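> example.struct
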């Protein structure tokens, strides 16, 4: 069956191995399946829900675009664009904000995490962030949304909002209820310094993550310094319980090589972390360094990146513009 794919990544810099294995690698596989129609969005409107430096934001929009292309997304097959170029996203977000009950938003755990202790100081934008995400998805009649596990709750909200809109306005199936595409295994890549914390661009320690712009030497060094425990590696999955660092490194290895955890456990069971680390450094640097080199090359070609984004925005505008027009008609505007 052909799928309509939509996904987004924030241009907040430091894209890392978690973004790659949790999301971007799936985008590439979906892009390579000729049956699918894919739309990948650099969600710059989402990025400003927390304070951004103007010049940095501009660079990050291009860097995220470069990362998509360097990872293997083909801009002649898939639409790549940045959200702020397509007005319908913000307009749709307002309309959906007027449909979504506050009670639904109050349940969102990402807001609670990001707002921290002082909720009163968080922006209203951060609070309604998931509604903008729903607008992104619903404007394109997306059937499938590939994301990391942390976005599951936002997708459930998107589904609820679509169903409520269809019911409130008596327009069955107008907003397509999308399915999440979340990888079953290794959908959460953890910090290299703490196997219980998600690998994240906001972690103050750069040693906690492999950035997609890291050099081969940086990758080798970070894997060398990754946290371990003091036991040999197990040969069965259930023995990974309470060994988050072992689980994470074995999971990363399996995910990069597209192999099952069982196979990796067969390979390393009874061996020491140092054996795993040297193999992992090798597979990671051979996978990530070519992407890193390509990102650096593309970033120097701003005209090309801007052209990809402009062409993508034209195509996206055509689809989203039509949908928002119908949506406004349904409401009574
Ligand atoms: P963000 O950079 O927060 O916009 O996230 C972009 C995509 O990467 C989303 O689909 C996230 O779910 C995914 N992602 C971010 N961090 C991780 C992680 N540590 N493990 C797996 N997926 C992740
Ligand atoms: N909220 C997502 C994240 O932080 C990014 C995002 C915005 C997104 N709009 C989207 C993902 C639409 C999928 C579909 O990762």
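> example.seq
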């Amino acid at each position: 069956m052909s799928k309509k794919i939509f996904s987004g990544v924030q241009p907040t810099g430091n894209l890392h191995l978690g973004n790659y294995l949790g999301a971007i690698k799936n985008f590439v596989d979906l892009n390579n399946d000729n049956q699918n129609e894919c739309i990948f969005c650099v969600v710059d409107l989402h990025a400003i829900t927390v304070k951004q430096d103007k010049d940095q934001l501009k660079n990050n929009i291009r860097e995220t675009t470069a990362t998509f292309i360097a990872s293997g997304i083909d801009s002649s097959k898939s639409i790549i664009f940045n959200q702020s170029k397509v007005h319908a996203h913000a307009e749709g977000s307002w309309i959906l904000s007027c449909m979504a009950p506050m009670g639904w938003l109050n349940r969102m755990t990402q807001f609670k995490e990001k707002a921290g202790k002082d909720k009163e100081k968080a922006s209203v934008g951060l609070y309604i962030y998931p509604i903008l995400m729903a607008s992104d998805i619903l404007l394109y009649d997306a059937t499938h949304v590939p994301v990391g596990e942390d976005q599951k709750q936002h997708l459930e909200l998107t589904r609820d909002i679509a169903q409520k809109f269809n019911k409130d306005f008596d327009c069955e199936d107008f907003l397509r209820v999308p399915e999440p595409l979340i990888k079953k295994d290794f959908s959460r890549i953890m910090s290299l310094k703490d196997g219980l914390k998600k690998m994240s661009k906001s972690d103050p320690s750069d040693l906690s993550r492999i950035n997609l712009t890291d050099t081969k030497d940086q990758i080798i060094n970070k894997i060398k310094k990754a946290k371990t425990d003091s036991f040999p590696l197990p040969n069965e999955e259930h023995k990974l319980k309470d060994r988050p660092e072992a689980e994470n490194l074995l999971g990363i290895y399996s995910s990069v090589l597209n192999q099952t955890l069982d196979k990796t456990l067969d390979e390393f069971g009874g061996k020491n972390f140092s054996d795993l680390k040297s193999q992992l450094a090798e597979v990671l640097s051979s996978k990530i360094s070519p992407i890193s080199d390509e990102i650096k090359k593309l970033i120097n070609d701003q005209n090309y990146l801007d052209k990809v984004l402009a062409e993508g925005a034209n195509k996206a505008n055509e689809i989203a513009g039509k949908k928002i027009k119908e949506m406004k008609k349904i409401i009574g505007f």
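> remarks
The CA atoms of residues 224 and 277 lie 6 Å apart.
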